[in-house]
Amino acid sequence: MTGAAAGSLRSPVPHGLPPMARSLTRVMALVVLVAVARCTAVSAAAPDYARDVRPVLERYCFECHTGDDANGGAVLDTRRPEEANAADRTVWLKVLRQVQGGVMPPADADQPTADERALIDRWIREAALKPDCSRGERPGRVTLRRLNRAEYDNTIRDLLGIDIHAAAEFPSDDVGYGFDSIGDVLSMPPVLFERALQAAERVSQAAISTGDVETAPVRTGKGGVLASQGEIGEAFPFPGSGEYVVRVLAWGDQAGDEPVKMVLRIDGADVETFEVRATERKPRDYEVKHRVEGGEHRVAVAFLNDYYNPDAPDPRRRDRNLHVGAITVVGPIGVLPDPLPEAHRLFFSRPVDPAADRETQGTQAREVLLPVVSRAYRRPATAGELDRLLGVYETARDQGESIQRAMQVALTAVLVSPSFLYRVEKDPPAGEVRDLDDFELASRLSYFLWSSMPDRELLAAALRHELHTPEQLVAQSQRMLADPKARALVDNFAGQWLQLRSLESFAPDRKRFPEFDDDLRRSMRRETEEFFARIVRQDRSIVEFLDADWSILDERLARHYGIDGVSGTEFRQVAVDRGARGGLLGQASILAVTSNPTRTSPVKRGKWILENLFAAPPPPPPPNVPELQDTGAQLTGTLRQRMEQHRVDPGCAGCHKLMDPLGFGLENYDAIGHWRTEDGGAPIDAGGEMPDGSRFNGPAELRAILLLRQDEFRRCLAEKLLTYALGRGLEWYDACAVERIASATAAGGDRFSVLVAEIVTSPAFRQREAPESR
Amino acid sequence: MSRPVLSRRTALRGVGTSLALPLLDCMAPLRTVAAAEGATAPKRVAFLYVPNGKHMQDWTPATTGADFPLSCILEPLADLRGKFSIHTGLAHDKAKANGDGPGDHARALATFLTGKQARKTAGADIRVGVSVDQLAAAHLGRRTRFSSLEIGTEGGGQSGSCDSGYSCVYSANIAWRSETQSVPKESNPRLIFDRLFAGGRPGESAEARARREKHELSILDFVQDEAKSLERRVGGADRRKLDEYFSAVRELERRMEETGRSGSDASHGFAQPAGIPESYQDHLRLLGDLLVLAFQTDSTRVSTFVFANEGSNRSYAFMGVPEGHHDLSHHGNDPAKQDKIRRINYFHVEQLAYLLRRLDAVREGEGTLLDNSMVLYGSGIGDGNRHNHNDLPILLAGGGGGTVKQGLHVEHPQDTPLTNLYLGMLDAIGCHVDRLGDSTGRIGVA
To answer: Is A173 in the B-facing interface, judged by CB distances under 8 Å?
Structure first.
């Protein structure tokens, strides 16, 4: 693979700054390897297996790892590294980990020298684990993906026009590879299925009106305790004139010689008086059906017979009180709302005739259900599926339900069926690769760019078998990026890639940062969201994420940044000083999510840069690092000095040498992203030295150094977006795709749409492999 | 007019915490399970987790055996002395790197109840082991509507990498149904309450409920047929995902049949809590109340409760500790920071004490609910400053149905697997398991 070499040729190296690639120290070389092992090779000649590697393995490993009885089943001597396959890779990865961790060879055996360990390490990474891109790109295989919470809500919205965010009550989705849309990680615990069933019922009731009391709109108000005279109640909206049920969950502390008495009032007029004999052990509902005109009315209950006798013989019968659990208004009853929900018309544009015979009704119901189910499953429903669903409908009818109610039940069934909750893709026969069909592609596109189901245009294109050509995929993706629904990329991709979602729980110390409040928090998040959105919408260069002379600010944030001339709460494009605020690293949102509540964290900032801009996970620790011992010695001095003492420990140095300088370069921003030149009276030292020896001082110079690594950034963004688009972690063989996508994006002027087009036309996006047999 | 306190409930509601949940009248238990099942009350077991270890110098009691002096972090438990024991010297070897590099926080939680080495992955092939609570649930859960209850103040990881190459699944989940499937915890008291006591649908009438459940059973049949027909078309990991689906559907089916037999699962008249309280302490206490209520009403006999996800950097500004918990735990031996970490530890133990007192206030037969429970409290990290996984802070409270001897500081030989203690706890509930994770024997608790 020629990534790094080609990359460094392509990227211009400005004069006056040290060229990176050539003068890497050994440590940095290792790090770069780890960092971009999937994407790049190192210029120095790789070690040769027969000449360099095998002798070392022979000396230290083969004694135990040969033949049928090889320890741990890891046979090493007969592997032919030049024909590495998936099984071999697993073994080599294991070897790598054992050697890195100092676990192998065991302590009582001969130990390889540090150079020999490094040799094995390097050969495994560069040769044994390297994909051969000349054989084309392997598409890989996405595990059956459950809709996550955002996708569920958006899909319901686009399927039925109902936007009730029912998934807010689902347990939060787990995160893998940085995203909450990974098939392997999204599971279906029992509590989730239960909540999905409840959500489906709520959605069905909102979609189809029956007029029954069970399904009439319900509004519940607060409860409370009445210890003496007084009222509990509030104003309720009554959407139209008609019959309503008012229900009061109540119980009493019983005392004296009569039960608790409660009167229900609407707009101050008594409607009904109840004797509340229920007690805490068994509260009950007291309800009345009443005709009410449309509009807002106060519904309240009052406690009529307060009683208090401290001398009563039974201490539990001295004080009479009324407890109200809740007041609920249900209705209007028996009337279909006007206008009907959009979805209702979807179901009954061709009505089912209640007067027709059973068979005719069944046929009609089937006709109603077919288009709905097909859209819900994002592909044509099969006859068998419709038959079974009709069974659910007819069972409900047989139990005496109305056509509307039975249709609600059928819709509920659709919304919890696996074909709705999961994105199903058929597997090819063992050992083969298949092209996804047009409908599967429609879903891949729509969930990638919209976090939702395909719209009518995509489904129509799929039905005509037109979607699978590269031209159509690109054309559709451009159309979709221009659609307002592409905002989902901001919420779900950018929100997670940049960790903006973590801003919600960031709680800086109010004493140190009195100016921080929820408005500022929102403005911070909004800036980065709008920044990302503008790059997508205007199809700008992705390099602007690293360096831009504009941002999107409101007055609050502009003041925070010390920029004049921006007034009001509207976010608008503002010219910024590139040195101070150019690109993501000058934005308060990112500077805050990488801080501790009371101070900045150069380590977290450095780690954030490595992980999210350069896809470089920290290198593994050197072998045989003992657990940290608490020597009892106190670390002293400035933050920088304490970090440096920390780094004396070889177990820490490997990572911190990389992370810390990057983070210290951002020390001019405090924990909420405010510019500063001193901290606690001492001047800020934002200088640093990269592992290759290049020096910088302050964010502007750091940014210049990072811009030299824009090839790595491009690959990083390609990796992140591909991961997000596919819903799986990238595998070793995906390095070929990432490299090609990144190169093509560069060639296409780094426009965001080019990156998307390269992804949607890649084999990984358009095809599917059979499961690997293990 | 001067009036006495209205009732316990009202009083508690009035003290400014947002407890919308009427606390139980301890003098008159609502539904004594003992009565329902004859003489013996059921045994319950709960596992409580706090992140980032403890400041061990202030946790470990100075002497062993009975009558050990309470260390300063343990002071909030003074009135519960005879009801809990401290176990020191226990370890989780499988939470160590063992060649997997950094990621101590993720491993600490993933290993805590499983005793297994979490496979290092950011997503594919997640694997650790079945957790002890789920083993207990498989044993005790058949007789209750919920086999277990998973709660915590936080949901899953929100974004990004959670800990050095480990998926957030590991750092956010404590309970594992299988080696590959975690059980998510719920954090919203309102939703937990509705699920436990109102079938998820507060305010629904009995007739409406009966009709709904009939339809639901037919829907559950339907979706199982759908899943079966899908199963034929997919392979590999997809199959496993469908298995999860099947098992979720079946569990709901079982509960509905169970409820059908036992009548209703009415809310016992408790008012629904409003949602997630603003204050962290209120949140912890409300979740604790729900745990107590779930045990008391025999809705479940097994629970896990995670005070905060592992590696939590939560600020404790409300008690004058504005720094992040994780940040502080790496105190570098700065006495001011050590003092603050001690205060956070103390705060968590206060919340534990609150929960234990609530359990102890519920009468059951001759004893209390606490006497019939075992509550384990601890962390998968020992000293937060070092990220070590030996000498863990572990506390076991409750009588386990009268069999567990408490009031001790038990010093185990260093590096004794914590899982040995779990096996002893499982024995005490009559669930005999040969091995769990890295266990090498069993520590009898009876």
So the answer is: yes
Question: Residue A497's closest chain B neighbor by CA?
Answer: B160
Q: Which of A101, A392, A512 sits opposite B101 (nearest CB)?
A: A101
Please report residues of B whose CB lies closer than 8 A to that of A185: 123, 126, 167, 169
666-705 of A, contacting B, C-beta below 8 A:
none
Chain A residues near residue B269 by CB distance under 8 angstroms: 251, 280-283, 325
Residue type at position B356: L
User: What are the sequence ranges of the domains in chain A?
Assistant: 49-129, 143-212+340-424, 218-333, 496-709
| Cα–Cα distance for residue pair A151/B339, rounded to 1 Å | 45
- Cβ contact B244–A143 (<8 Å): no
Inter-chain residue contact A281 with B30, CB threshold 8 Å: yes
Q: What would the two tokens of residue A67 be? A: 């033949």
Measured between alpha carbons, how far is A664 from B94 in angstroms, rounded to an integer? Answer: 35
Which of A449, A457, A525 is CA-nearest to residue A487?
A449
Cα–Cα dist A40/A581, whole Å: 31
Query: Residues A555, A561, A564, A565: is their CA dihedral positive or negative?
Result: negative
ipTM for the complex?
Answer: 0.89
Q: Of A102, A424, A635, which is closest to B333 when you measure between CB atoms?
A: A635
CA distances in angstroms from B441 to A150, A737, B86, listed in the order given: 46, 50, 19
Among chain B residues, CA nearest to A619: B101
CA distance B377 to B73: 13
CB neighbours (10 Å) of residue A279?
16
Q: Report the residue from B165, B314, B335 with minimal CB separation from A617.
A: B165
Q: Measured between beta carbons, which residues in chain A are less than 8 angstroms from residue B313? A: 596-597
DSSP character string of B300-315: -SEEEEESS-TT---E
| Residue A20, beta-bridge partner list | none
Lowest mean pLDDT among A228-242, A265-279, A480-494: A228-242
Give pLDDT tens digits along chain B (446 positions).
333 322 333 323 322 333 334 443 332 333 444 444 455 789 999 999 999 999 999 999 999 999 999 999 999 999 999 999 999 999 999 999 887 878 899 999 999 999 999 998 988 889 999 999 999 999 998 888 899 999 999 987 665 567 778 998 999 999 999 999 999 999 999 999 988 887 767 667 777 888 899 999 999 999 999 999 999 888 888 999 999 999 999 999 988 887 665 545 555 556 678 889 999 999 999 999 999 999 998 999 999 999 999 999 999 999 999 999 999 998 988 999 999 999 999 999 999 999 999 999 999 988 999 999 999 999 999 998 888 999 999 999 999 998 899 999 999 999 999 999 999 999 999 999 999 999 999 999 98
- Cα separations (Å) of A238 from A56, A285, A298? 83, 21, 10
Q: Which residues, other chains included, contact A498 with Cβ-Cβ below 8 Å and sequence gap of 6+?
A: A528, A532, A584, A589, A590, A612
Q: Are A28 and A42 in contact (CB under 8 A)?
A: no
| CATH number for the domain formed by residue range(s) A218-333 | 2.60.120.260
- Amino acid, res. A152: Y
Start-to-end C-alpha separation, chain A: 28
Residue A22 three-state SS? coil
Q: Which of B122, B164, B313 sits opposite A177 (nearest CB)?
A: B122
Please tell me the predicted confidence (pLDDT) of residue A221: 85
Query: Mutating which of B167, B197, B209, B344 best tests the A interface, going by the most A Cβ atoms within 10 A?
Result: B167
- CA–CA separation, A17 vs A76, rounded Å? 45
CA distance B314 to A349: 54
Q: Where are the alpha helices (DSSP H) in A101-235?
A: 114-123, 149-160, 190-207
3-state secondary structure at position A177: coil
Contact call for residues A550 and A573 (beta carbons, < 8 A)? yes
